[in-house]
Design a protein that fits this description.
By secondary structure, this protein is α/β, with parallel strands linked by helices. The protein has 13 helices and 24 strands. It folds into two domains: about 250 residues, P-loop containing nucleotide triphosphate hydrolases (Rossmann fold, 3-Layer(aba) Sandwich), CATH 3.40.50; about 220 residues, L-amino peptidase D-ALA esterase/amidase (4-Layer Sandwich).
Length: about 500
C-alpha cells in the first residue's frame, strides 16, 4: 500500500527526517511514536504530500507520490492534522460535506444522493449528528475534532493520516473513535497511520509501531517489542514501568512520579497496627501496601491501607456477598476501595500472629484457622459445592520490596506451609477420611511495603521463603490448636 524509502527532508533545508524507510500494509493501524521534536508530524506531512522531501521516495499503490494530482491524492488519502482551523464559520454538516469534494464531478460539482448518505453516515459514526446545524465555532475543541474527523472519513479514503486524533477528546470518545477506526481497518481494509502521544492507546490499538528519535527510526515492530521499559526510558528520558493490560494482550506503561518513588524510609508492619474486636480483626497501615489477595473485597493485585478479617455466623448466607461486605466495611468506617475484606466463621480471639525479623526485612503473619470444613483438594470431586465463609485466613505482611515473581512465590510457600501444618496435626477430610489440605474457602493475602530491601524471590529455600514457611507453619498450627481446644470444651 505505502512504501517509504530513505526519506530525508524538513524545513528551510534542515533535515528533520533522516533516511527513514518502512512499509505500511493495507488494513493496518500503524502508530508513530516519539518525544517532542523527534520528527513525527514532519514525517506525516511528507506522507500526505503537504511537505516536499529532499531525498528518498514515497510510493503509493505502486506510483510515486509526486505523480499524483491533488484531487487524485484526496481520493486515496485523508488527513486530520493536530490543529485544525477554518477560515469561515460553516455549519457542522457543511464542514463535513467538504470532504466529498474529491468525489464530485463536472463544472458545477453537483451534490448526489450518495454524497448525502455518506455525510449522514460519518456524522452518526463520529457522534456529531445532533449538532449538524450548529456553526463550527460554537463547538468545543473535542466536538470540533470529531467534526473534522467526520470530514476526513467523508472522503472515503483508503489511507487515513491522523496527528494525535484523540487530542481534546474525553475518555469515552477516545475509545469510541479508536474502536471505530480499528473496526474499519478490519472490515473495510482502511489503512490508518496515526501519531500518538499516549503510548498506552498506541499499544492497545495499533498493529505495529514506529518509534522515532531525533528524526530517525529507533524501532519499527509490534507494540510489545517497541514498548519495552528500557527502550521507552531511554528515548523519552523518564521513569516508567511496563505491565500487561488486565483484559487484552497488549502492553501498558505507567509513569513513576519522582516524588513518590523517592520515598525510601523503611516502614515495619507489626502488631501495633492491629485492631481487635468481637466483630473483626483489622490492620491499618500508615501507607498503602502492594497486595495480592483472594479477599471477598480487594482480590487480585492492588494497593490497600486497610485489611479486615470479619467474623460471620457459620450459617451466613447472602445472594450478593460482595455488596454486603462493601456495605459492612463502609458502616464500620473502612473505605472499600482502600480495603481488603475477608470473612471467617472462626472465633476471632483464637487468632494467632507473630513478627519474624531478619536483617533488612521483617514478616508479620496473622492467621485465623478452623478445620470444621477441612477437605482434601485431590478429592474435591466427592464434595458438593457450598459457599461457606473461609475458615483459614492467612495474612502475610512483608516489610520490604517484592517483585511480582516474589508475590506469587510467597503465595506458593505460604500454602505449602499451611498444608504441612494440617498434615502434622492430622486434620482429615470428613467425607473421604484422607488428610486435608485446607478448607473449601481459604483466603490469603501477601502485602508488602515496597520499601527497604529488594526481595526478588520467595521460594522455600530463599531468605524470605524460609521466614514465610516457618511463620505460616507455626501460626497455622497454633491457630488450629486453639480452635480444636475450643471445640473440645
Amino acid at each position: 500500500m505505502l512504501n517509504i524509502e530513505k526519506l530525508t527532508g524538513g524545513y528551510s533545508g534542515d533535515s528533520v527526517i533522516k533516511n527513514v524507510s518502512f512499509q505500511v500494509e493495507t488494513g493496518e493501524l500503524f502508530g508513530i511514536l516519539g518525544p517532542n521534536g523527534s520528527g513525527k508530524t514532519t514525517l506525516l506531512k511528507m506522507l500526505s504530500g503537504i511537505l516536499p522531501f529532499s531525498r528518498g521516495n514515497v510510493t503509493l499503490k505502486g506510483r510515486s507520490l509526486k505523480e499524483y494530482t491533488a484531487k487524485e491524492l484526496a481520493k486515496i488519502i485523508a488527513v486530520l492534522p493536530q490543529h485544525t482551523s477554518q477560515g469561515f464559520s460553516y455549519t457542522v454538516k457543511e464542514t463535513v460535506s467538504l470532504g466529498r469534494y474529491a468525489h464530485q464531478k463536472g463544472w458545477f460539482q453537483s451534490w448526489s444522493e450518495e454524497d448525502e448518505v455518506i455525510v449522514q453516515q460519518v456524522m452518526a459514526q463520529t457522534g456529531v449528528s445532533a449538532f449538524e446545524h450548529l456553526f463550527i465555532n460554537e463547538l468545543s475543541g473535542g466536538e470540533r475534532q470529531r467534526v473534522f474527523l467526520a470530514q476526513a472519513l467523508a472522503q472515503e479514503p483508503e489511507i487515513l493520516l491522523l496527528d494525535e486524533p484523540t487530542n481534546h477528546l474525553d475518555l469515552s470518545f477516545q475509545k469510541d473513535l479508536l474502536d471505530l477506526l480499528k473496526s474499519w481497518t478490519k472490515e473495510r481494509g482502511l489503512t490508518v497511520i496515526s501519531i500518538f502521544h499516549d503510548l498506552n492507546l498506541a499499544g492497545l490499538y495499533c498493529d505495529r509501531l514506529l518509534l522515532m528519535e531525533n528524526g530517525e527510526i529507533n524501532l519499527n515492530d509490534v507494540p510489545n517489542e517497541v514498548l519495552r521499559e528500557e527502550r521507552i526510558r531511554a528515548v523519552y528520558r523518564t521513569s516508567i514501568q511496563k505491565q500487561p493490560h488486565p483484559k487484552v494482550a497488549a502492553p501498558q506503561l505507567v509513569l513513576l512520579p519522582e516524588s513518590l518513588t523517592q520515598e525510601t524510609e523503611q516502614l515495619f508492619i507489626d502488631e501495633a497496627l492491629l485492631q481487635m474486636s468481637e466483630q473483626f480483626i483489622a490492620l491499618k497501615s500508615p501507607i498503602p501496601l502492594k497486595t495480592m489477595s483472594s479477599g471477598v473485597v480487594g482480590s487480585g493485585f492492588g494497593w490497600y491501607s486497610n485489611f479486615v478479617n470479619r467474623h460471620v455466623n457459620k450459617n451466613y448466607n447472602c445472594s450478593d456477598h460482595k455488596k454486603e461486605m462493601i456495605d459492612y466495611l463502609r458502616s464500620n468506617g473502612f473505605e472499600p476501595g482502600e480495603t481488603v475484606g475477608m470473612m471467617t466463621a472462626v472465633m476471632l480471639e483464637d487468632v494467632t500472629y507473630e513478627l519474624y525479623k531478619e536483617d533488612g526485612f521483617s514478616v508479620f503473619i496473622v492467621v485465623t484457622a478452623g478445620v470444621g470444613n477441612a477437605m482434601d483438594a485431590s478429592k474435591s470431586g466427592l464434595h458438593s459445592y457450598t459457599r461457606t465463609p473461609g475458615t483459614i485466613n492467612s495474612w502475610v505482611f512483608i516489610s520490604g520490596e517484592l517483585t511480582d515473581e516474589a508475590f506469587i512465590q510467597s503465595i506458593m510457600t505460604a500454602t505449602e506451609a499451611k498444608v504441612k501444618a494440617m498434615h502434622d496435626l492430622e486434620v482429615k477430610d470428613r467425607v473421604t477420611g484422607t488428610l486435608a489440605t485446607g478448607t473449601s474457602t481459604d483466603s490469603i493475602l501477601i502485602a508488602a511495603t515496597q520499601r527497604g530491601e529488594m526481595l526478588e524471590y520467595a521460594g522455600t529455600i530463599t531468605a524470605l521463603g524460609k521466614i514465610i514457611g516457618r511463620g505460616v507453619y507455626e501460626c497455622t498450627s497454633k491457630a488450629i490448636w486453639k480452635s480444636r481446644k475450643r471445640v473440645v470444651k
